[in-house]
Amino acid sequence: MKLVLKIWRQKDAADRGRLVRYEVDGLSPDMSFLEVLDVLNERLTAAGDEPVAFDHDCREGICGACGVVIDGTAHGPQKATTTCQLHLRHFADGQTVTVEPWRARAFPVVKDLVVDRGALDRIIEAGGYITAPTGSAPEAHATPVPKPAADRAFEAAACIGCGACVAACPNGSAMLFTAAKATHLGTLPQGEPERLPRAAAMAAAQDAEGFGGCTNTGECTAVCPKAIPLEVIGSLNRDALEATLRLG
Ligand code: SF4
Ligand code: FES
């Protein structure tokens, strides 16, 4: 099959950037969207042209590196699917597809489809961890975890830090990401003691990085490849408010 790709090309952060049209044929419906970019890049390289820069690592929907905006939707048209797991069978032969990088103030474009998502790492640095004394691993059953808490933590822990929620949000908010991380840790007994200061610190870091505020539009959860529920944002807001009232 064949696709007509209109891909955002931008030399560096200072370049204005533009969409460039490419026709890519000889594709299989079983190829992933990243493999289409691979094919295009092989042909560009063979022709002596600059290949399209894009981020990727696992290609299994795990690492969160690969996101791009496909026809206006973060990670493309398939629900709960990362760009690397999006297959061509979901596109029509000959379809024109527009491919752009994440667009958000806190995610500056580095080159072509690659953005700097370091702001998410700095939110984690602000509190996305559990303080624990070092030493040998504790006995597995020493800290019982109730099943509902384990399930909730597991659901939130599915966040892969891809940033699609930010790209889809009209406010450029990272609240779904931040709340998923805070909920994952704060729901477990090991993370509960730091739940309030963690929520306050991570929410403050989110604001300091230039992400927008959440107005509950729900675009984030609609594009999230791991279907993180909007409800976690309520939990984070409650914990951040409680932290302000109790800890000052
Ligand atoms: S909440 Fe979903 S969309 Fe946002 S970073 Fe995590 S996995 Fe990606
Ligand atoms: S390359 Fe790792 S999630 Fe897509």
UniProtKB/TrEMBL annotation:
It comes from the Bacteria. Residues 1-103 form the 2Fe-2S ferredoxin-type domain. PROSITE patterns: 2FE2S_FER_1, 2FE2S_FER_2, 4FE4S_FER_1, 4FE4S_FER_2. Residues 150-180 form the 4Fe-4S ferredoxin-type domain. Its cofactor is [3Fe-4S] cluster; [2Fe-2S] cluster. NCBIfam families: PRK07570.1. This is Succinate dehydrogenase. It comes from Amycolatopsis deserti.
